[in-house]
Fold this sequence. Notes:
Blueprint: E1 3-5, E2 15-17, H1 20-29, E3 37-41, E4 46-54, E5 60-69, E6 76-82, H2 86-98, E7 103-108, H3 118-138, E8 146-147, E9 151-152, H4 153-158, E10 166-171, E11 191-196, H5 204-212, E12 216-218, H6 227-241
Parallel strand pairs: 1-3, 6-7, 6-11, 7-8, 7-9, 10-11, 10-12
Antiparallel strand pairs: 2-5, 3-4, 4-5
Helix pairs in contact: 2-3, 2-6
The structure holds S-adenosyl-L-homocysteine.
Residues 171-173, 196-197, 199-202, 219-221, 223-225, 227, 230 line the site of S-adenosyl-L-homocysteine.
Amino acid sequence: MRRFFFDPSSRNGDKAFLSEEESRHISKVLRLKTGDEIELLDGLGTLYHAVITTVGRQVEAQIEGVVVKEADVGKSVLVWQGILKGEKMDTVVQKCTELGVTEMMPFQSSRCQGKLSRIQARKKHQRWQRIGQAACKQCLRLQSIKIDTPVTYTESLSKKSDDNTILRLLFWEEEKTTHLHDIPNIAKACSLALMLGPEGGFTREEVEQARLSGWRTVSLGDRILRAETATLSAVSIVQYLAGNL
Ligand code: SAH
């Protein structure tokens, strides 16, 4: 059955109101009709069975019952990602969603290729959110991925900086001694934050700045991985060690 997201805060009793984008997809692309059955995701972990009651610019649906509710959220894994060029960033957002990343913080650091204007950043953000949502539906993920608006590197370091429960790992090809198996608390930590650089990597100053903000540098081995390979490897290994895979 087709799945769509709805905003649970817009729910009125058993009535769910879908966004303009989901409504357009239902009415114009799929041409679903009043009375058709659908599944609705609230993005918080519950999947509902529903029946369309109104089609058009804003689709309305009657919620008939809960199909499944995710009991435990598991550990949260946050990815601070240096913005990659074009489709590479799209791929990373999609794969991180599939791999269960909770939240992504895209940042612009000094070696990012091309700086985004405010308007470009907004458009990219909307695009990544769409990709994340589509990936959630495709991989049958019940909790949506949160994708933050792009920020500068310094701003990204201040994000969640007062949360001492987060274990912060910055992946750096110049780190020669500490590997993931040297970090003892991955299985115990309730939240993990992984930071990965853009294609051009981090400058030494950026790494120092992160260390001062509580990030530990970690190696993924002697080979320099392409940015997207590094992110997906780091996320996969950490998710395995954290018991989320
Ligand atoms: N500009 C660098 C490589 C950057 S690779 C160079 O060409 O020398 C992009 C990102 O992938 C890096 O910022 C880092 O976060 C991650 N990365 C790649 N290889 C890595 C490795 N062996 N260990 C840890 N992180 C790595």
